[in-house]
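INFO  loader      accepted 1 record
INFO  loader      residues=365
INFO  predictor   begin
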Amino acid sequence: MILFDAYEIGSTSLKNRIVMAPLTRCRATADHIPTDLMATYYSQRAGAGLIITEGTAPSPNGAGYARIPGIYNQEQTAAWKKVTDAVHEANGKIFLQLMHTGRVSHKANMPENARVLAPSAIELEETKMYVDGEGELPTTAPKAMSSEEITATINEYVKAAQNAIKAGFDGVEVHGANGYLIEQFISPTSNQRSDEYGGSIEARCKFAIEVAQRVSDAIGKERVGIRLSPYGVMNEVGFEEAVEETFVYLAKQLREIGLTYIHIADHESMGAPEVPNSIKEKIAQHFGGTIILSGGYNREQANQDLENKLGHLVAFGRPYIANPDLALRLEHDEVLAQPDPDYFYTPGEKGYTDYAILEHHLETT
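INFO  predictor   done
INFO  writer      dumping C-alpha coordinates
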Protein backbone atom coordinates (compact mmCIF):
# COMPACT_ATOMS: atom_id res chain seq x y z
CA MET A 1 0.00 0.00 0.00
CA ILE A 2 1.27 3.44 -0.95
CA LEU A 3 0.38 4.72 2.55
CA PHE A 4 3.43 2.92 3.90
CA ASP A 5 5.90 4.11 1.25
CA ALA A 6 8.69 6.55 2.09
CA TYR A 7 8.38 10.15 0.99
CA GLU A 8 10.53 13.30 0.78
CA ILE A 9 8.99 16.50 2.08
CA GLY A 10 11.26 19.46 1.48
CA SER A 11 14.57 18.52 3.07
CA THR A 12 12.97 15.93 5.36
CA SER A 13 12.84 12.19 4.62
CA LEU A 14 9.73 10.41 5.91
CA LYS A 15 9.58 6.65 6.47
CA ASN A 16 5.88 6.48 5.52
CA ARG A 17 3.07 8.76 4.34
CA ILE A 18 1.23 8.77 7.66
CA VAL A 19 1.07 12.11 9.44
CA MET A 20 0.07 12.64 13.05
CA ALA A 21 -2.29 15.60 12.82
CA PRO A 22 -1.99 18.51 15.27
CA LEU A 23 -4.06 17.78 18.38
CA THR A 24 -4.56 20.24 21.21
CA ARG A 25 -4.07 18.32 24.48
CA CYS A 26 -3.46 21.08 27.07
CA ARG A 27 -0.61 19.32 28.91
CA ALA A 28 1.78 22.29 29.11
CA THR A 29 2.14 24.31 32.31
CA ALA A 30 -0.04 27.30 33.17
CA ASP A 31 2.84 29.42 31.85
CA HIS A 32 2.64 27.60 28.50
CA ILE A 33 5.90 25.66 28.98
CA PRO A 34 6.12 22.15 27.47
CA THR A 35 6.51 19.34 29.99
CA ASP A 36 8.52 16.12 30.17
CA LEU A 37 5.21 14.25 29.83
CA MET A 38 4.82 15.81 26.39
CA ALA A 39 8.21 14.38 25.38
CA THR A 40 6.94 10.92 26.31
CA TYR A 41 3.67 11.45 24.44
CA TYR A 42 5.26 12.51 21.16
CA SER A 43 8.07 9.95 21.26
CA GLN A 44 5.47 7.19 21.73
CA ARG A 45 3.99 8.26 18.38
CA ALA A 46 7.24 8.53 16.42
CA GLY A 47 6.14 5.70 14.12
CA ALA A 48 4.35 8.33 12.04
CA GLY A 49 6.22 9.50 8.98
CA LEU A 50 5.70 13.03 10.28
CA ILE A 51 4.38 14.37 13.58
CA ILE A 52 2.81 17.82 13.55
CA THR A 53 2.57 19.14 17.09
CA GLU A 54 -0.41 20.64 18.79
CA GLY A 55 -1.03 24.32 18.12
CA THR A 56 1.75 26.33 19.78
CA ALA A 57 1.55 30.03 20.52
CA PRO A 58 4.12 32.20 18.69
CA SER A 59 3.30 35.10 21.02
CA PRO A 60 1.84 35.76 24.47
CA ASN A 61 -1.04 37.35 22.56
CA GLY A 62 -1.68 34.03 20.81
CA ALA A 63 -1.88 31.84 23.92
CA GLY A 64 -5.65 32.02 24.36
CA TYR A 65 -6.30 28.50 25.67
CA ALA A 66 -5.44 27.06 29.07
CA ARG A 67 -2.18 25.08 29.15
CA ILE A 68 -1.34 25.19 25.45
CA PRO A 69 2.42 25.41 24.82
CA GLY A 70 4.24 28.43 23.52
CA ILE A 71 7.54 29.00 21.73
CA TYR A 72 8.05 32.72 22.34
CA ASN A 73 10.68 32.57 25.11
CA GLN A 74 13.89 30.74 25.98
CA GLU A 75 12.36 28.53 28.67
CA GLN A 76 9.73 27.21 26.26
CA THR A 77 12.33 26.67 23.54
CA ALA A 78 14.57 24.69 25.90
CA ALA A 79 11.64 22.57 27.04
CA TRP A 80 10.66 21.79 23.43
CA LYS A 81 14.24 20.58 22.83
CA LYS A 82 13.51 17.66 25.16
CA VAL A 83 10.53 16.77 22.96
CA THR A 84 12.41 16.88 19.66
CA ASP A 85 15.33 14.93 21.12
CA ALA A 86 12.97 12.19 22.30
CA VAL A 87 11.22 12.00 18.91
CA HIS A 88 14.49 11.92 16.96
CA GLU A 89 15.90 9.25 19.27
CA ALA A 90 12.83 7.18 18.35
CA ASN A 91 13.59 7.73 14.62
CA GLY A 92 10.74 10.18 14.11
CA LYS A 93 10.35 13.52 12.35
CA ILE A 94 8.46 16.44 13.85
CA PHE A 95 7.17 19.85 12.74
CA LEU A 96 5.90 22.50 15.17
CA GLN A 97 2.50 24.03 14.43
CA LEU A 98 2.47 27.79 15.00
CA MET A 99 -1.04 28.75 16.16
CA HIS A 100 -1.99 32.28 17.14
CA THR A 101 -5.48 32.10 18.63
CA GLY A 102 -6.40 35.72 17.88
CA ARG A 103 -9.94 36.41 19.10
CA VAL A 104 -10.41 32.77 20.18
CA SER A 105 -8.96 33.61 23.59
CA HIS A 106 -9.66 34.37 27.20
CA LYS A 107 -7.48 36.87 29.03
CA ALA A 108 -7.30 34.61 32.11
CA ASN A 109 -5.44 31.96 30.06
CA MET A 110 -2.83 34.40 28.81
CA PRO A 111 0.31 36.01 30.28
CA GLU A 112 -0.35 39.12 32.33
CA ASN A 113 0.48 41.75 29.71
CA ALA A 114 -0.96 39.90 26.71
CA ARG A 115 -3.73 41.37 24.58
CA VAL A 116 -6.53 39.70 22.65
CA LEU A 117 -6.02 40.90 19.07
CA ALA A 118 -7.95 40.24 15.87
CA PRO A 119 -8.35 41.73 12.39
CA SER A 120 -11.58 43.41 13.52
CA ALA A 121 -13.17 44.01 16.92
CA ILE A 122 -15.84 41.36 16.38
CA GLU A 123 -16.65 39.23 19.42
CA LEU A 124 -17.45 35.53 19.21
CA GLU A 125 -21.14 34.99 19.93
CA GLU A 126 -21.36 31.29 20.74
CA THR A 127 -17.84 29.98 21.28
CA LYS A 128 -16.86 29.52 24.94
CA MET A 129 -13.40 29.26 26.44
CA TYR A 130 -12.35 26.99 29.31
CA VAL A 131 -10.50 28.69 32.16
CA ASP A 132 -8.94 26.55 34.91
CA GLY A 133 -10.93 26.88 38.12
CA GLU A 134 -13.74 28.82 36.42
CA GLY A 135 -15.04 26.52 33.68
CA GLU A 136 -16.54 27.64 30.36
CA LEU A 137 -16.63 31.43 29.95
CA PRO A 138 -17.35 33.82 27.08
CA THR A 139 -14.23 34.75 25.16
CA THR A 140 -12.57 38.11 25.79
CA ALA A 141 -13.58 40.87 23.38
CA PRO A 142 -10.76 41.46 20.87
CA LYS A 143 -9.04 44.67 19.88
CA ALA A 144 -8.77 45.42 16.16
CA MET A 145 -5.09 45.25 15.21
CA SER A 146 -3.31 48.41 14.17
CA SER A 147 -0.87 48.29 11.26
CA GLU A 148 1.96 48.40 13.81
CA GLU A 149 0.48 45.45 15.68
CA ILE A 150 0.17 43.49 12.44
CA THR A 151 3.86 44.09 11.71
CA ALA A 152 4.81 43.12 15.27
CA THR A 153 2.73 39.93 15.06
CA ILE A 154 4.38 38.87 11.81
CA ASN A 155 7.76 39.43 13.50
CA GLU A 156 6.59 37.20 16.37
CA TYR A 157 5.84 34.38 13.92
CA VAL A 158 9.36 34.76 12.51
CA LYS A 159 11.01 34.66 15.93
CA ALA A 160 8.89 31.68 16.96
CA ALA A 161 9.92 29.78 13.82
CA GLN A 162 13.57 30.53 14.55
CA ASN A 163 13.05 29.30 18.11
CA ALA A 164 11.52 26.10 16.70
CA ILE A 165 14.64 25.39 14.67
CA LYS A 166 16.80 26.10 17.74
CA ALA A 167 14.64 23.60 19.62
CA GLY A 168 15.46 20.93 17.03
CA PHE A 169 12.25 20.80 15.01
CA ASP A 170 12.50 19.59 11.42
CA GLY A 171 10.20 22.40 10.32
CA VAL A 172 7.06 24.36 11.16
CA GLU A 173 3.44 24.39 10.07
CA VAL A 174 1.75 27.79 9.99
CA HIS A 175 -1.82 27.33 11.21
CA GLY A 176 -4.06 29.14 8.75
CA ALA A 177 -7.19 27.13 9.55
CA ASN A 178 -9.84 26.44 12.20
CA GLY A 179 -10.83 30.04 12.79
CA TYR A 180 -7.58 31.21 14.39
CA LEU A 181 -5.80 34.48 13.63
CA ILE A 182 -4.66 33.82 10.07
CA GLU A 183 -8.05 32.49 9.01
CA GLN A 184 -9.68 35.40 10.87
CA PHE A 185 -7.91 37.60 8.32
CA ILE A 186 -8.88 35.40 5.36
CA SER A 187 -12.57 35.12 6.26
CA PRO A 188 -14.95 37.99 5.38
CA THR A 189 -17.08 37.20 8.45
CA SER A 190 -14.26 38.04 10.87
CA ASN A 191 -12.33 40.58 8.77
CA GLN A 192 -14.18 43.83 8.12
CA ARG A 193 -11.13 46.03 7.70
CA SER A 194 -11.01 48.79 5.11
CA ASP A 195 -7.21 49.04 4.83
CA GLU A 196 -4.73 46.94 2.82
CA TYR A 197 -5.58 43.85 4.91
CA GLY A 198 -9.33 43.82 4.34
CA GLY A 199 -12.01 43.88 1.67
CA SER A 200 -10.87 42.03 -1.45
CA ILE A 201 -9.67 38.43 -1.58
CA GLU A 202 -6.13 39.64 -2.21
CA ALA A 203 -6.24 41.97 0.80
CA ARG A 204 -7.73 39.38 3.16
CA CYS A 205 -5.03 36.87 2.15
CA LYS A 206 -2.23 39.40 2.58
CA PHE A 207 -1.52 38.59 6.24
CA ALA A 208 -1.30 34.84 5.57
CA ILE A 209 1.03 35.39 2.62
CA GLU A 210 3.28 37.77 4.53
CA VAL A 211 3.59 35.34 7.46
CA ALA A 212 4.41 32.47 5.08
CA GLN A 213 6.96 34.56 3.18
CA ARG A 214 8.73 35.94 6.24
CA VAL A 215 8.87 32.58 8.03
CA SER A 216 10.22 30.94 4.86
CA ASP A 217 12.86 33.64 4.51
CA ALA A 218 13.90 33.09 8.12
CA ILE A 219 14.22 29.29 8.30
CA GLY A 220 14.05 28.08 4.68
CA LYS A 221 10.96 27.41 2.57
CA GLU A 222 11.74 23.68 2.54
CA ARG A 223 10.96 23.68 6.29
CA VAL A 224 7.61 25.47 6.12
CA GLY A 225 4.08 24.20 5.50
CA ILE A 226 0.66 25.72 6.09
CA ARG A 227 -2.71 24.37 7.17
CA LEU A 228 -5.86 25.68 5.47
CA SER A 229 -9.55 24.83 5.90
CA PRO A 230 -11.76 25.76 2.92
CA TYR A 231 -15.41 25.72 3.95
CA GLY A 232 -14.30 25.74 7.57
CA VAL A 233 -16.77 26.93 10.18
CA MET A 234 -14.80 26.42 13.39
CA ASN A 235 -14.72 29.35 15.80
CA GLU A 236 -17.38 31.24 13.86
CA VAL A 237 -15.54 31.98 10.64
CA GLY A 238 -17.18 31.42 7.29
CA PHE A 239 -16.99 31.89 3.54
CA GLU A 240 -20.39 32.75 2.17
CA GLU A 241 -19.12 33.06 -1.39
CA ALA A 242 -15.94 32.94 -3.49
CA VAL A 243 -14.50 30.06 -1.46
CA GLU A 244 -12.83 28.46 -4.45
CA GLU A 245 -11.52 31.77 -5.77
CA THR A 246 -10.05 32.62 -2.35
CA PHE A 247 -8.15 29.38 -1.86
CA VAL A 248 -6.98 29.07 -5.47
CA TYR A 249 -5.52 32.57 -5.18
CA LEU A 250 -3.86 31.64 -1.90
CA ALA A 251 -2.46 28.40 -3.39
CA LYS A 252 -0.93 30.34 -6.29
CA GLN A 253 0.75 32.80 -3.92
CA LEU A 254 2.08 30.03 -1.69
CA ARG A 255 3.51 28.33 -4.77
CA GLU A 256 5.43 31.53 -5.56
CA ILE A 257 6.89 31.47 -2.05
CA GLY A 258 7.80 27.80 -2.46
CA LEU A 259 6.27 26.37 0.72
CA THR A 260 6.90 22.67 1.14
CA TYR A 261 3.27 21.66 1.71
CA ILE A 262 -0.35 22.66 2.13
CA HIS A 263 -2.27 20.70 4.75
CA ILE A 264 -5.98 20.72 3.83
CA ALA A 265 -8.26 20.32 6.85
CA ASP A 266 -11.65 18.80 6.00
CA HIS A 267 -13.96 18.86 9.03
CA GLU A 268 -16.95 17.15 7.40
CA SER A 269 -16.64 14.24 9.86
CA MET A 270 -17.11 16.80 12.68
CA GLY A 271 -20.24 18.34 11.19
CA ALA A 272 -18.74 21.05 8.96
CA PRO A 273 -19.63 21.38 5.27
CA GLU A 274 -17.88 18.94 2.95
CA VAL A 275 -14.72 20.14 1.24
CA PRO A 276 -15.36 18.90 -2.32
CA ASN A 277 -12.61 16.98 -4.10
CA SER A 278 -12.84 19.58 -6.84
CA ILE A 279 -11.44 22.34 -4.63
CA LYS A 280 -8.77 20.02 -3.20
CA GLU A 281 -7.73 19.21 -6.78
CA LYS A 282 -7.59 22.90 -7.74
CA ILE A 283 -5.53 23.80 -4.66
CA ALA A 284 -3.14 20.97 -5.52
CA GLN A 285 -2.97 21.98 -9.18
CA HIS A 286 -2.20 25.64 -8.50
CA PHE A 287 0.14 24.95 -5.57
CA GLY A 288 2.19 22.25 -7.26
CA GLY A 289 3.82 20.97 -4.06
CA THR A 290 3.04 18.37 -1.43
CA ILE A 291 -0.57 18.11 -0.24
CA ILE A 292 -1.45 16.63 3.14
CA LEU A 293 -5.04 15.39 3.36
CA SER A 294 -6.90 15.15 6.67
CA GLY A 295 -10.42 14.58 7.92
CA GLY A 296 -11.83 11.36 9.38
CA TYR A 297 -9.64 8.99 7.38
CA ASN A 298 -9.37 5.23 7.85
CA ARG A 299 -6.74 2.93 6.34
CA GLU A 300 -8.60 2.06 3.16
CA GLN A 301 -9.82 5.55 2.29
CA ALA A 302 -6.39 7.04 2.99
CA ASN A 303 -4.69 4.65 0.63
CA GLN A 304 -7.39 5.09 -2.02
CA ASP A 305 -7.06 8.89 -2.01
CA LEU A 306 -3.28 8.58 -2.29
CA GLU A 307 -3.62 6.17 -5.20
CA ASN A 308 -6.09 8.59 -6.83
CA LYS A 309 -3.47 11.34 -6.43
CA LEU A 310 -5.69 13.64 -4.36
CA GLY A 311 -2.71 14.16 -2.07
CA HIS A 312 0.70 12.86 -1.09
CA LEU A 313 0.35 12.31 2.67
CA VAL A 314 -2.61 11.61 4.98
CA ALA A 315 -3.00 12.99 8.50
CA PHE A 316 -4.76 11.06 11.26
CA GLY A 317 -5.98 12.92 14.34
CA ARG A 318 -8.14 11.24 16.97
CA PRO A 319 -6.92 7.71 16.14
CA TYR A 320 -3.48 8.82 17.33
CA ILE A 321 -4.81 9.72 20.78
CA ALA A 322 -5.53 6.13 21.81
CA ASN A 323 -3.11 4.36 19.45
CA PRO A 324 0.49 5.49 19.99
CA ASP A 325 1.55 2.72 17.56
CA LEU A 326 -1.05 3.73 14.97
CA ALA A 327 1.29 3.43 11.99
CA LEU A 328 2.02 -0.21 12.81
CA ARG A 329 -1.63 -0.95 13.56
CA LEU A 330 -2.59 0.46 10.18
CA GLU A 331 0.18 -1.41 8.40
CA HIS A 332 -0.93 -4.73 9.90
CA ASP A 333 -4.65 -3.87 9.69
CA GLU A 334 -5.17 -4.35 13.41
CA VAL A 335 -8.05 -3.17 15.58
CA LEU A 336 -7.80 0.42 16.82
CA ALA A 337 -8.39 1.42 20.44
CA GLN A 338 -10.93 4.20 21.10
CA PRO A 339 -9.98 7.37 23.00
CA ASP A 340 -11.72 8.61 26.14
CA PRO A 341 -12.94 12.17 25.44
CA ASP A 342 -13.13 12.94 29.16
CA TYR A 343 -9.32 13.21 29.14
CA PHE A 344 -8.70 15.04 25.87
CA TYR A 345 -7.74 18.32 27.57
CA THR A 346 -7.08 17.43 31.22
CA PRO A 347 -3.68 17.64 32.94
CA GLY A 348 -1.68 14.48 33.65
CA GLU A 349 -0.90 11.16 32.02
CA LYS A 350 -4.44 9.71 32.22
CA GLY A 351 -5.80 9.48 28.68
CA TYR A 352 -2.51 10.87 27.35
CA THR A 353 0.54 8.63 27.76
CA ASP A 354 -1.17 5.57 29.28
CA TYR A 355 -2.68 4.10 26.10
CA ALA A 356 -1.23 0.69 25.32
CA ILE A 357 1.32 -0.13 22.64
CA LEU A 358 0.68 -3.66 21.39
CA GLU A 359 3.21 -6.03 22.90
CA HIS A 360 4.44 -7.40 19.58
CA HIS A 361 4.95 -3.83 18.38
CA LEU A 362 7.34 -3.14 21.26
CA GLU A 363 9.69 -5.66 19.64
CA THR A 364 9.81 -3.66 16.37
CA THR A 365 10.34 -0.15 17.78
